[in-house]
């Protein structure tokens, strides 16, 4: 039976999500349900196999490392029992071998944890489209089989094109169908040689199949040949408007029923069927299998095939080639803020610009999301790749105008040269990828050739990630607290909690050395949750030993705020430690509230209703906008230390501080200046009306036990506590 007709709406897609981590499983299921998908959750591989047997799914999101049955086993089951079911692996495994193995086992794509929600949704959408194409292909195959069976019956009664040739190859009979398809009148063909209809490139093969002399099993069956139309301006055909591809069946005719050896050859009987539609369908399916549907560029499969060929050629001639990885630096911001429709148009425009920089023999591929790969075969010198890369950077510097929006997108490019960086496909791609991430980590909008120092840095990054995971398990993190001081009285009015890592070998490690990696690997969620728990536990101890109640500010990562259960987690933590909501302030960055505004507003409003205050950290360093200050429940603006440090004897450099304070006072927001190091800065801020300050002038970040002593005194006077020239504490 032909497969069911696939639907086009997300509500009709049935998705199975498999993971053994409840938090990740629940958040991913919630993300998909919000997009309108019907979602089932399987906690582990065994449950996944049970659900696969009981239900008909359109796609599977699958973790690899599970304690009972691994993701590889589930993949093998799907490949063997459920061909055509699209499986997207979502795993924390980062090696190319894992990716390669999953794709070999039949996975549609591989997404590394921590995943970006938009990447998950886009990949799932593409996987469903691919499944729809495959299902339609199956339907076409069923239809073609039915058509062929019907055609055989019709051929015996009223075939498409029926002809007969005499012993010299001239037409003795043609039916009306030939006239319709090739615009020849019957009288124009009778007595004419068959070569009149055959495409000149097929004349040699036509000698054996069109003018067939054999019979029985040796006669021509389903041979393809091209026939020429009389009128070149006829309806469009495969490849050419005057060429008709046909599938030919022909057999020799003899005047005796006993066969060729006992009879004389009379001519040929043949039937030709128009296969234009099949050719077009095959061409379309082949194109879609090897090209990105949005940009029309080669996809990963076609890129790998061409790279294999280029490597083989370069090895044979001892030549050079270059592989580039390109990543659009600001694409996610544009895509999130303006929508996927604008993002798709931007990707198409980027494709056009990149293509304009290349030679005909180069291959540009959309690798996925906003990543592109570029193959430069047969380069003469290594610097040629840098010349192309710089040309791309220059081309991308001009703004893109999309739907009335003027958009700027820069590009980070990593280059791997064969054979310097490696001689195998996987190695070259990996090295180009490492070089690209090196560019992104060092300012973006540039290009770099791979070198072994980058490999060491990449290895160090992997080591640091492993140590971070171990730090969570072994409780190596500690919370320090920096007082916030009333600029008028010197009284402690609040604290900011700051995480520190007591590394067993490196000693005290500040967050600037590991927070970004934690963000990239999604470790920031468990680390941030631990920091909130630890801060509330310390607040509970202070409350038990001092009547002095201070509000504690805790930094919250965008990834934490994205968690579906974030609000419940915060409220449960406060209740667990007996902390009133009024004692907690959550500090978020401007980028957090620019992305996914609707969801963020709802969560912040829910927290505010319980007395929790919301502060914007490092205000002025990101996407400063008056609109979100009015839309969101914001209570506090924190003036970044970079602006405070500009305050000097001449007040011109402090104009940004003036503007922020004026803005905050105008919107009736609380103002806190961080990084105050000198009496001059303090007095300047006091004159402008900034009521709270923090910095080395008063106190550095200290463990909770030392803060207890300060709170017992009730007041902290800044004078004499620190030298004006001392460095700022972070």
Describe the secondary-structure layout:
Layout lengths: L13 E5 L3 H13 L3 E5 L2 H10 L4 E4 L8 H11 L4 E6 L4 H9 L4 E4 L4 H39 L5 E6 L4 E4 L1 H7 L3 H4 L13 H7 L10 E9 L14 E12 L10 E10 L1 H15 L9 H18 L2 E9 L2 H8 L1 H17 L6 E6 L2 E9 L3 H15 L2 E3 L2 E3 L3 E8 L6 H17 L5 E3 L2 H22 L3 E10 L5 E12 L3 E3 L5 H7 L2 H22 L5 E5 L2 H5 L3 H12 L6 E5 L1 H5 L2 H12 L4 E7 L6 H6 L4 E4 L1 H4 L10 H12 L3 E4 L5 H10 L3 E2 L8 E2 H10 L17
Parallel strand pairs: 1-2, 1-3, 3-4, 4-5, 16-17, 19-21, 21-22, 22-23, 23-24, 24-25, 25-26
Antiparallel strand pairs: 6-7, 6-10, 8-9, 9-10, 11-13, 11-16, 12-13, 14-15, 18-19, 18-26, 18-27, 19-20
Helix pairs in contact: 2-3, 11-12, 17-19, 19-21
Overview in brief:
With 730 residues, the chain is α/β, with parallel strands linked by helices. It is built from 26 helices and 27 strands. Strand 18 (477-486) and strand 19 (492-503) form a beta hairpin.
């Amino acid at each position: 039976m032909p497969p069911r007709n696939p639907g086009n709406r997300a509500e009709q897609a049935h998705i199975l999500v498999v993971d053994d981590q409840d938090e990740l499983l629940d958040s991913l299921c919630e993300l998909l349900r919000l997009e309108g998908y019907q979602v089932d959750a399987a906690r582990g591989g065994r449950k996944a196999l049970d659900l696969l047997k009981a239900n008909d799914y359109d796609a599977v999101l699958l973790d690899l490392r599970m304690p009972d049955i691994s993701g590889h086993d589930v993949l093998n089951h799907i490949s063997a029992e459920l061909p055509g079911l699209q499986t997207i692996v979502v795993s924390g495994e980062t090696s190319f071998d894992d990716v390669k193995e999953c794709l070999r086992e039949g996975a549609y794509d591989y997404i590394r944890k921590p995943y970006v929600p938009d990447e998950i949704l886009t990949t799932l959408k593409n996987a469903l489209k691919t499944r729809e194409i495959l299902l339609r292909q199956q339907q076409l195959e069923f239809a073609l089989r039915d058509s062929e069976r019907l055609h055989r019956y019709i051929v015996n009664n009223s075939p498409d094109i029926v002809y007969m040739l005499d012993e010299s190859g001239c037409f003795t009979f043609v039916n009306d169908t030939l006239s319709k398809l090739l615009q020849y009148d019957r009288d124009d063909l009778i007595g004419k040689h068959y070569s009149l209809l055959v495409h000149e490139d097929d004349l040699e093969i036509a000698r054996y199949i069109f003018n067939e002399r054999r019979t029985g099993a040796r006669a021509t069956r389903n041979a393809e040949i091209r026939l020429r139309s009389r009128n070149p301006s006829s309806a469009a055909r495969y490849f050419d408007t005057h060429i008709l591809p046909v599938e030919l069946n022909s057999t020799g005719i003899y005047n005796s029923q006993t066969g060729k050896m006992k009879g004389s050859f009379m001519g040929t009987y043949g039937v030709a069927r128009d296969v234009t539609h099949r050719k077009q369908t095959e061409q379309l399916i082949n194109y879609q299998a090897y090209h990105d549907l949005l940009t029309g560029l080669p996809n990963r499969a076609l890129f790998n095939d061409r790279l294999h060929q280029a490597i083989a050629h370069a090895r044979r001639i001892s030549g050079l080639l270059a592989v580039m990885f390109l990543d659009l630096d600001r694409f996610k911001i544009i895509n999130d803020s303006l929508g996927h429709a604008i993002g798709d148009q931007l990707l198409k425009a980027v494709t056009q610009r990149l293509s304009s920089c290349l030679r005909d023999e180069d291959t540009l591929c959309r690798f996925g999301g906003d990543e592109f790969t570029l193959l430069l075969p047969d380069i003469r010198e290594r610097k040629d790749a840098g010349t192309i890369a710089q040309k791309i950077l220059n081309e991308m510097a001009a703004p893109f105008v999309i739907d009335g929006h003027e958009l700027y997108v820069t590009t980070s490019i990593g280059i791997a040269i064969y054979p310097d960086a490696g001689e195998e496909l996987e190695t070259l791609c990996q090295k180009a990828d490492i070089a690209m991430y090196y560019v992104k980590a060092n300012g973006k909008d540039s290009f770099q050739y791979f070198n072994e120092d980058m490999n060491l840095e990449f290895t160090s990054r992997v080591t640091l990630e492993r140590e971070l995971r171990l730090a969570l398990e072994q409780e190596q993190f500690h919370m320090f607290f920096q007082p916030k001081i009333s600029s008028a009285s010197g009284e402690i009015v609040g604290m900011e909690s700051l995480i520190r890592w007591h590394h067993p070998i490196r000693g005290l490690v500040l967050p600037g050395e590991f927070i970004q990696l934690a963000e990239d690997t999604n470790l920031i969620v468990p680390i941030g949750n631990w920091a909130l728990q630890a801060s509330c536990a310390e607040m509970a101890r202070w409350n038990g030993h001092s009547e002095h109640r201070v509000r504690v500010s805790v930094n919250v990562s965008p990834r934490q705020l994205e968690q579906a259960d974030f609000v419940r987690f915060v409220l449960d933590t406060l209740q667990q430690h007996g902390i009133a909501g009024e004692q907690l302030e959550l500090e978020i960055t401007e980028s957090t509230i620019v992305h996914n505004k609707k969801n963020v507003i709802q969560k912040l409003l829910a927290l505010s209703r319980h007395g929790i205050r919301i502060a914007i950290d490092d205000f002025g360093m990101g996407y400063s906008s008056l609109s979100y200050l009015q839309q969101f429940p914001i209570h506090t603006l924190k003036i970044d230390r970079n602006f405070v440090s500009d305050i000097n004897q001449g007040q011109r450099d402090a104009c940004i501080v003036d503007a922020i304070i004026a803005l905050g006072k105008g919107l009736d927001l609380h103002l806190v200046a961080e990084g105050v190091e000198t009496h001059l800065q303090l007095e300047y801020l006091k004159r402008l009306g900034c009521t709270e300050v923090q910095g080395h002038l008063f106190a550095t970040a200290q463990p909770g036990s030392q803060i207890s002593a300060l709170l017992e005194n009730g007041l902290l006077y800044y004078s004499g506590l620190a030298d004006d020239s001392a460095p700022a504490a972070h």
